[in-house]
Write the structure tokens for this entry.
Amino acid sequence: MCLVYGLNYLDKTTLSYASIMGIKKPHSDDKLTSGIDLTGNQYSWLGSMFYFGYLAWEYPTNRLLQRLPLGKYSAFNIIMWGLVLSCFAAVENYAGAIAIRFFLGVFESAVTPGFALFTSQWYTKKEQGTRTGIWFSFNGFAQIFGGLVAYGIAVGTQKHGTSIEPWKIVFLVTGLLTMCMGIVFLFIIPDNQMNARWLSKEDRLLAIERIRINQQGVGNKHFKWYQLQEALLDPLSWAFFFYALVADIPNGGISNFFSQLIVGFGYTPQQSLLYGTPGGAVEVVFLIVCGYLGDRFGHRILISSFGLVVAIIGMVLIVALPLHNNKGRLAGYYLTQASPTPFVALLSLISTNVAGYTKKTTVAAMYLVGYCAGNIIGPQTFRASDAPRYVPAEVTIIVCWGVCLFDLAFIHLYCIHQNKKKAKVRYAPEYERLENQEWLDLTDKENPEFVYTL
């Protein structure tokens, strides 16, 4: 899961590396120097188009994750997105690039909700925050790996020449690697505990028994309309959606423009490939440490908020420091890479705090629809006319992250309030607990024994 999720991030941001490796150059008769001649804001629309595909297929893929074998359907999507990404090396114009980005979003839309389901299926509530932080942290490892690979390709092709453009090599390497990992995923990852080939029959039963404490069962393939309705009427669902929408406006901008931002700090395109990699290390450290501390002390939301505060400080440095202070602005960029910590904490809380399989898949879809919408808006805040500083986009990012802090406070207080209400029900003299209640596919609202994780 870690390796696949790292490739998931790398494949989305390959476009950022390609943007300074020749993809934006005018098309010419010389095949060795041809790009696809992007003009005006076409590059921004390429960044956004991925999320149009993601958005269009997000709810259908969540239903398919519920209906189809989880491991096999996830593996199919991994193999297909690797194939689509490889096809980017054959693109010769803007229309072809748009089509590739759209279908890349379609196939990648199953990964994050699928991995959230895997996590809730195999790990207890107290383990889910750390585990989600670990596999999501491979975004950071991918940033390190991708930057080094892109830098190596750029330097190698400059010194020794190549029969195809360097940016095409980047797409081929990452796409083919993803397809190989998808085939491995197909044979290793089971659909559930009962068909895990690497567990004995006794251990399969123990793997199910250990998650009894979650009060969520192990999955239910039947669609339940009342759970869909409850998801749409639950304030917590919309608070999750609102966070994903607002927080991913900055994410959409930074993930597609970070290479160009670093060039704007005064570095060469090749240096930007290399100097972007420490940002990945910052993300890895914050995600794993905040995930562990959140589970350790039972306050995922509050501890993850610290990462967002650090990111705001980083973006203030980028905006406020003068152009000639390239090292200070680069350090500010590194600090912004702590921003995913609350997003990951809330993703783990969808696994932990949303019960009922139909409700869980619906809320996960809502969360990722917000994620898509934010990422569609984000690249549009980086206008070509604002280069190289992009001050309006950077101020927008600071405001969005500030609003997100208030949303996190609401989620924290709402969960405390719901736990107090449930405690009153459980302590009432007339309360009777149902037998095997934890396996009945009840929603978090229905089940008085359900306790929200903070």
Notes: Residues 36 and 350 are 41 Å apart (CA to CA).
